[in-house]
Protein 1
Amino acid sequence: MTIRSDNDVRKAEKAVYDKARRERLGQEWIDHSVSWIRANREKHRQYCKTYRDKNSEREKARSRDYHQRLRQEAIAAYGGKCVCCEELEWPFLSIDHVNGNGNEHRRKVGRGNSFFNWLKKNNWPADFQVLCHNCNQAKGMGLTCPHKVK
Ligand SMILES: [Zn+2]
Ligand SMILES: [Zn+2]
């Protein structure tokens, strides 16, 4: 024979209670909702839309935050400033593949969050550096950065 813990008993009781409630309220509640929606179609649509919008706004903000935090963490790990011009404003900064095969690398590990997560997981490998977008652009064009041509 199995000894049931208090927890099991509570769970079983709750299941019975839930089922009874569903049976008692179920159809009535569903009918009520359906007729409300029918009578307030426009309001219901608006309500759903507001809910969806609010949620997706929140979702978007959350993933934006996460992405920016990860980005800032990576930039800080690589010294927090452009290795060429010492730009410090993190929105201007990017992580650059020192040997210039960033594209190939991105194909392998992905971009955005997966790229930053990969760096972090690999303990910030040494063949990356911080460059600001200006210096990165010059490098991407195969030029010596104008900062260095003086
Ligand atoms: Zn720079
Ligand atoms: Zn530069």
Protein 2
Amino acid sequence: MTDQLFYVWITLTGLFVGSFLNVVIYRYPYEEVTVSNPRRSRCPKCQHQLAWYENVPLVSWTLQRGRCRHCAAPVPWRYPLVEGLTAGLWLLAAVHAGGVAHWPLVLVHVLVLSGLVVATFVDIDCLEIPDSVSIGGMVVGPLLCLAVPEVHRDSWVARELAGAGPVGPMHALTASLAGLAVGWGVLFVIGWLGARAFGKEAMGFGDVKLLGAGGAFVGPGGVVLALMAASVLASIAGLLNMARFYALIRGRARRRGVAKPLGKALARARALGRYIPFGPYLAVGIGIALLYWNDVASRLL
Ligand SMILES: [Zn+2]
């Protein structure tokens, strides 16, 4: 297979997997359904069972202009977003790995990226990260790295251990376990200190497990990078969120004709805007470390 054909194939596969991830994300909070039961998706409004042609990734949503064909209930744009995002990430992973010759590495990367997509959207919806992704990643991570040492071809620890030669299974396994320990440990300590300092849970345990799982794939250097990227992104998002609440509070006060004191509005906006899930930012950080800057530690040292 040529690389071009491989890229087309992986993008299309990513689209259909993205469609499947939508089901995983949507059904996660419901106890009575699983991913395979019921087999076919229904419109949540009119219960109409979707035919295959109403379920084609991106295409159906576009042709139906984002509405159910039967009751015209709006279908959230998040569905095509997750499909497009997954397809884009799969293509990125394939190109980054170096094409079809590196298919085992591509396989590991698309698996990790798909898990991160699920973790992101479930965390946004339910403020929790599925254990199947976080604990699952911690369990299969080291095993996959043992099988595909190339995953750690840029990891600092693995490179140091390998010396001039290629990264072997034992080097990759060591980097994976070190990454897992550092990822899990760093957030666990931050959470523990935060809980002692503020008397409440500062860091969700789901985040601890997610960074542990990510660490297994990006190594200890990648973990530090992922955490830094996540912190910067979450701070920016937190500030924007506070600004949004601040504008809301001030606007409402103005409409009512009462002058809300500036300081009071700010304090309220801070309290409301602080609660944003950290998981999505961690997931983006891990993704960046996985595909692009895993070698940042070796470059710096
Ligand atoms: Zn409907």
